[in-house]
Amino acid sequence: MTTRRNFLKGSLAGLVFCGCGLPFAAHAQAPARLPVTVKGKTVKTIDTHAHCFFQQAIDLMGEDAKNVTPPVKGVKEHFIVIEQRLKEMDAMAIDMEVLSINPFWYRKERDVAEAICKINNEKLAELCGSKPDRFAAFASLPMQAPDLAAQMLETAMKKQGLKGAAIGGAVGGLEFSDPKFHPVWAKAEELGVPLFIHPQGVAELGKRLSGNGWLGNTIGNPLETTIALSHLIFEGTLDKFPGLKVIAAHGGGYLPSYADRSDHACMVGPRGCNADIKLKKKPSEYLKQLYFDSLIFSPEAIRHLAAQVGASQIVLGSDYPYPWQLQPVDHIFASSSLSDDEKANILGNTAAKLLKIGA
Question: What does the alpha-carbon distance between residue 150 and residue 181 come to, in Å, rounded to a whole number?
Answer without folding.
Answer: 9
